[in-house]
Design brief:
This protein is α/β, with parallel strands linked by helices. Helix content is 66%, strand content 7%.
């Protein structure tokens, strides 16, 4: 009993370390923003903000508004300030609402120092059904729970089934989970107002990767599988996905995971597909595909391991000898 109670204790410690470590004190670092203008005043403003930020901001100058908008829509920048008698701040809330808020906070103070009200223009707004821009993250949570909970059921109730059957169950369940996610994203909550087919496809890739990795790991981890998939797909996954805070507002460890973890691939892939005309979508799809391939590889390794554990069938001669021994034993 005490050994089994160790699992929830480790979950408690792991969730606390992951969530509090990632979310408890978001602070910008190297947050890319632009100052629009090419004259000396724009250069001085950019350098002043960069120096005062003490590493929080990465401030550069761009020659015109069109270049600034392009950088925002390609997610290479998270804000662009147009100085003047009527200052304006350009943001892209679809990229990250929390990053846009952080940028707005900085430049509201800059405009206040010039005694001018700041006009904020959102060049990539989120859909009406997702006003905070975090609906995609909560969709990720739903898909993840449906997937790793299915791992527990298949590993437990289906433990006596051949691995190929368990793998087929995992593939089928990933399809069901992804369809549920598509219903949530589209007709039920209207998280996205276009590109629902692509959202469903990424949901399936994401769910299938989790299920296959989990089913394969169960062969090796047994009762520790639940803890293992929670570490992979909750503790490290949710915190590095960028759904609440992008890496520019998080500690470096979680920011580094954002580059290749499957949750980040899903969140950023959906954002790219729905709001940014597919810019950088290929890279995010590659992340999801590689996690799916990892699931296939783990499942294949599990199949080989289970085949080695299975006792070899007795040869005909051995079977006859065993029968004779049994007859003799019964006669005795």
């Amino acid at each position: 009993m005490l050994g089994h109670l160790l699992t929830p204790l480790l979950m408690c410690v792991g969730m606390g370390l992951a969530y509090l470590g990632a979310f408890h004190a978001p602070q910008p670092h190297d947050l890319r923003v632009d100052v629009v203008g090419s004259g000396p005043s724009a250069q001085v403003l950019a350098q002043t903000l960069h120096d005062k930020g003490d590493g929080a901001l990465d401030v550069r100058t761009v020659p015109d508004r069109e270049t600034a908008v392009t950088a925002l829509r390609e997610q290479t920048s998270f804000g662009a300030y147009l100085p003047g008698p009527h200052p304006e701040l350009l943001v892209a809330s679809a990229s990250s609402d929390t990053s846009a808020m952080a940028v707005e906070k900085v430049f509201t103070k800059v405009a206040a120092g010039q005694d001018a009200p700041l006009k904020v223009t959102d060049v990539a707004p989120v859909s009406d059904g997702d006003p905070t821009g975090q609906g995609v993250f909560f969709l990720l949570v739903a898909l993840s729970i449906g997937s790793y909970a299915s791992v527990a059921v298949i590993g437990g109730a289906g433990a006596v089934l051949p691995l190929r059957v368990r793998a087929l169950l995992a593939a089928g369940m990933s399809l069901v989970v992804s369809l549920v996610g598509a219903v949530f994203a589209g007709p039920m909550f209207h998280l996205v107002d276009q590109g629902l087919g692509g959202v469903w496809a990424m949901s399936w890739l994401y769910s299938a990767g989790i299920l296959l990795i989990g089913v394969g790991l169960h062969t090796f981890l047994r009762r520790w599988t639940t803890l293992g998939v929670m570490v992979l797909f909750v503790m490290l996954n949710f915190t590095s996905s960028g759904g609440i805070y992008r890496p520019e507002l998080q500690p470096g460890f979680f920011g580094s995971l954002h580059a290749f973890w499957n949750g980040a691939g899903f969140v950023e892939g959906v954002r790219s597909h729905v709001y940014f005309d597919g810019h950088a979508l290929t890279g995010h799809l590659l992340v999801l595909a590689l996690w799916l391939l990892a699931g296939v590889a783990v499942t294949v390794c599990a199949g080989l391991a289970e085949a080695r554990r299975r006792p070899a069938p007795a040869a005909p001669a051995q079977e006859e000898e065993l029968e004779e021994e049994m007859e003799q034993a019964v006669g005795v």
